[in-house]
C-alpha cells in the first residue's frame, strides 16, 4: 500500500523554494493518487522549536502554514493535514528510534551545523558547538525518521536539502528492524525538478524561511510590488546581460532557473538564457517578476479568502479532523512497535 508523508515547519510563510521544491509535488501526488493511497502532510511544529521560537509568533505561523497548504490545493477531505504536536506517537516513536540510532551518523549531518553557522567538519563535542548545540536540534533527524515511519510512509516528497535526512531515516529502519524484527518500512525519497531554489541575495545558499534577510526569499503571500522589489534587488553580477552559466554567474542563473520552473512550455534555463540574451538585467528581471506575480495570484486570493472567512474556526476544524485521522494512522504502527519491543 502506498503511503505518502511529508512535513513543513511553521517557521514562517512558505516561499518559492518550499513551493517548487516540495509543496507543488504534494499537490500533484494528491491529485494523481489512486483511492488506496494514503496521504499525510504535517505542519511540523515539534521540529520548529529546535530553534527557539516566540510562542505567539509560532501559533500564528502554524495557522498560516496550514492555510497555505489548503490554498495551494491540498484538500483536507483527501489528504490528512495535521499539526505534528497533536499526534503524540511521533515523539514516542522518536524516543524508541533514539535507542537504536547512531550518534556518529548524526554528528555527520550538515543541518545542525548550518543552523548554527558552524563549519562542515564541526563535531558536537567541539567547544564552539557544545555551548550552542541543543540536544533537540542534534537529534532532529531522529524525529523526522519517526514522522515518516509512524505512518509507514513509502514515499516522502522533499527538497534536496532533506535527502541526507532521508538517508538517515532508512538507516533508522535498518537498525530498528535488525533489533526487533521487520516492522518498519523503508521510505523512498521523491524530489521535484526544482530540487534546490537558491537565495535571491546569495546564490550559494538555499532559499530559507528562517534566513534573517526577507529579501532573500519570495514568500507565497508577497504582493506584486513586493515581488518586484525583491526580484529587482536580487544579487547578480557586474555583467549587465542575460546568460545561463551556473558556475560563473550563479545569481542570474538562479533567476533563469526560477523562470524555467514557471514556464508553461517547459523551456530549460539555458534555452531561456538564449531567448532573453538580447535583454539587460533590468528588463529580464521585470519579465521574471511579472511571471512570478502572475503565477502566485491565484494562490494569494485563495489564501486571503481562507484567512479572512476563518477567524480560527475553519482551520481549527481541519486541524482537529486531521489530528484524529493521523492518530489512528500512527496507532496502527505503534501497536506493532510496542509489542515487538516487549512493552
Ligand atoms: P527553515 O529555514 O526554518 O528550515 P525551510 O525554508 O528550510 O525553513 P522547511 O520547513 O525546513 O523550510 O522545509 C519544508 C520543505 O521545503 C522541505 O521538503 C524542504 O526540503 C523544502 N525546501 C526548503 N527550502 C527549499 C529550497 N530552497 N529549494 C527547494 N526545496 C526547499
Ligand atoms: Mg529547512
3D architecture notes:
With 343 residues, the chain is mainly α. The protein is 55% helix and 6% strand. It has helices at residues 16-32, 45-48, 55-71, 89-98, 103-108, 111-115, 127-132, 135-150, 163-180, 224-232, 250-262, 269-275, 281-310, 313-341, and strands at residues 3-8, 38-43, 80-83, 155-157, 188-190. The strands form two sheets. It has a three-stranded parallel sheet with strand order 1-2-3. Strands 4-5 form a two-stranded parallel ribbon. Helix 8 packs across helix 9 (163-180), helix 10 runs antiparallel to helix 13 (281-310) and helix 11 crosses helix 13. The two termini are 27 Å apart. Bound molecules: adenosine-5'-triphosphate and magnesium ion (MG). Residues 8-9, 11, 17-18, 21-22, 158-159, 161-162, 194, 196-197, 206-210 line the site of adenosine-5'-triphosphate.
Give the SSE map.
Blueprint: E1 3-8, H1 16-32, E2 38-43, H2 45-48, H3 55-71, E3 80-83, H4 89-98, H5 103-108, H6 111-115, H7 127-132, H8 135-150, E4 155-157, H9 163-180, E5 188-190, H10 224-232, H11 250-262, H12 269-275, H13 281-310, H14 313-341
Parallel strand pairs: 1-2, 2-3, 4-5
Helix pairs in contact: 3-13, 4-8, 8-9, 10-13, 11-12, 11-13
The structure holds adenosine-5'-triphosphate (ATP) and magnesium ion.
The site of adenosine-5'-triphosphate has 19 residues, from helix 1.
Mean pLDDT: 95
Rg is 21 Å
Tell me the CATH superfamily of the largest domain. HUPs
Q: What is the total tally of β strands?
A: 5
Q: What is the helix tally?
A: 14
SS strand fraction: 5-15%
CATH topology of the largest domain: the name is Rossmann fold
- Unique ligands: adenosine-5'-triphosphate, magnesium ion
| Largest sheet report | 3 strands, parallel
CATH class call of the largest domain: Alpha Beta
Per CATH, the architecture of the largest domain is 3-Layer(aba) Sandwich
Distance N to C terminus: 27 Å
Structural class by sheet pairing and helices:
mainly alpha
Instruction: Summarize the amount of helix as a percent range.
Output: 40-55%
Amino acid at each position: 500500500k502506498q503511503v505518502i508523508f511529508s512535513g513543513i515547519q511553521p517557521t514562517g510563510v512558505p516561499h518559492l523554494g518550499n513551493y517548487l521544491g516540495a509543496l507543488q509535488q504534494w499537490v500533484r501526488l494528491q491529485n494523481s493518487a489512486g483511492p488506496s493511497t494514503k496521504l499525510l502532510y504535517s505542519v511540523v511544529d515539534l521540529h520548529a522549536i529546535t530553534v527557539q521560537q516566540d510562542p505567539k509568533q509560532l501559533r500564528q505561523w502554524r495557522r498560516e502554514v496550514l492555510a497555505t497548504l489548503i490554498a495551494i490545493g491540498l484538500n483536507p477531505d483527501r489528504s490528512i493535514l495535521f499539526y505534528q504536536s497533536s499526534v503524540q506517537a511521533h515523539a514516542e516513536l522518536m524516543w524508541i528510534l533514539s535507542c537504536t540510532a547512531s550518534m556518529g551518523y548524526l554528528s555527520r549531518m550538515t543541518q545542525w551545523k548550518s543552523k548554527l553557522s558552524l563549519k562542515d567538519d564541526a563535531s558536537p563535542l567541539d567547544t564552539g558547538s557544545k555551548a550552542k548545540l541543543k540536544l533537540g536540534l542534534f537529534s532532529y533527524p531522529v524525529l523526522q525518521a519517526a514522522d515518516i515511519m509512524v505512518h509507514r510512509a513509502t514515499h516522502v516528497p522533499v527538497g534536496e536539502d532533506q535527502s541526507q535526512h532521508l538517508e538517515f531515516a532508512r538507516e533508522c529502519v535498518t537498525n530498528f528492524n535488525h533489533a526487533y524484527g521487520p516492522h518498519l518500512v523503508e521510505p523512498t525519497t521523491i524530489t521535484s525538478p526544482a530540487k534546490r531554489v537558491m537565495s535571491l541575495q546569495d546564490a550559494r545558499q538555499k532559499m530559507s524561511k528562517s534566513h534573517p534577510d526577507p529579501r532573500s526569499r519570495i514568500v507565497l503571500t508577497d504582493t506584486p510590488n513586493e515581488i518586484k522589489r525583491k526580484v529587482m534587488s536580487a544579487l547578480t553580477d557586474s555583467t549587465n546581460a542575460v546568460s545561463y552559466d551556473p558556475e560563473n554567474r550563479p545569481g542570474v542563473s538562479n533567476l533563469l532557473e526560477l523562470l524555467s520552473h514557471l514556464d508553461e512550455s517547459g523551456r530549460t534555463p539555458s534555452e531561456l538564457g538564449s531567448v532573453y540574451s538580447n535583454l539587460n538585467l533590468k528588463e529580464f528581471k521585470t519579465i521574471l517578476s511579472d511571471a512570478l506575480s502572475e503565477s502566485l495570484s491565484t494562490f494569494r486570493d485563495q489564501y486571503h479568502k481562507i484567512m479572512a472567512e476563518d477567524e480560527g474556526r475553519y482551520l481549527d476544524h481541519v486541524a482537529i479532523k486531521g489530528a484524529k485521522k493521523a492518530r489512528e494512522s500512527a496507532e496502527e504502527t505503534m501497536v506493532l512497535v510496542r509489542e515487538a519491543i516487549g512493552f
